[in-house]
Specification:
The chain has about 200 residues and is an alpha+beta fold. The protein is built from nine helices and five strands; from the N terminus they run H-E-E-H-H-E-E-H-E-H-H-H-H-H. It folds into two domains: about 120 residues, Beta-Lactamase (2-Layer Sandwich); about 60 residues, Winged helix-like DNA-binding domain superfamily/Winged helix DNA-binding domain (Arc Repressor Mutant, subunit A). Strands 2-1-5-4-3 form a five-stranded antiparallel β-sheet, with helices on both faces. It is elongated and about 50 Å long. It starts with a helix and ends in a 5-residue tail after the last helix.
Length: about 200
């Protein structure tokens, strides 16, 4: 039913936000009008970056970043659920705080089943936090399978596809199938783009 779907969607949104809090990332799940579906406590403490208050639409204090957020939300709503395109951009703080990078990530595939078209995760990461992300964050945000997430981490860490296949003890043809799934779910089409997009996530 619609009520059950809405309840499942809210529970899933809260789970995503709290999972990101556990690895130190302020995060909010919004719809395509920036209305907050769920958020974690780290967002509430990022007052030098975030303008919105509970019950309001999510927004940044940085007007340039906020314009990019609006554009990203519009793009997420317009695109098909199986054609996700993420967007990243810098967010300047008010005062002397550190700048961050915002990642706007459409909810995709089976994760999207309990969400509305255009729902996204907005998360904030500090500049310079490089390295392969934990598999769990890839599975949570991009709906990767455990094997896809492990392969993605290996590639982000600098392994070739052949090296990653050997380390996972799978055939190169199987690795290519997994990599194709990673590309589809993360919205990229090259390994270099995958590394660039995901290397800012924390270990």
């Amino acid at each position: 039913s619609a009520m059950l779907s809405a309840r499942l969607g809210l529970e899933k949104a809260r789970g995503i936000a709290e999972a990101l809090a556990m690895i130190g990332l302020p995060a909010v799940v919004t719809n395509n009008t920036a209305s907050v579906v769920a958020s974690n406590a780290l967002v509430d403490t990022a007052t030098d970056l975030v303008l919105s208050r509970p019950g309001e639409r999510f927004s940044f204090r940085d007007t340039a970043a906020n314009a990019k957020l609006v554009a990203a939300l519009a793009g997420a709503s317009a695109r098909a659920a199986d054609d996700p395109v993420s967007m990243s951009f810098p967010v300047a703080p008010v005062g002397e705080g550190d700048s961050s990078v915002a990642h706007v990530i459409p909810l995709v595939r089976s994760t999207r089943d309990v969400f509305s078209r255009g729902d996204v995760v907005v998360l904030l990461a500090s500049f310079g936090r490089a390295g392969p992300p934990a598999s769990g964050i890839l599975e949570t945000l991009f709906d990767l399978t455990p094997r896809e997430a492990t392969l993605a981490r290996a590639i982000i860490a600098g392994q070739s596809l052949e090296e990653a296949a050997r380390s996972l003890n799978i055939a190169i043809s199987t690795a290519r199938v997994h990599l194709k799934g990673v590309f589809q779910k993360t919205g990229v089409d090259r390994q270099a783009s995958l590394v660039s997009k995901l290397s800012l996530f924390p270990m």
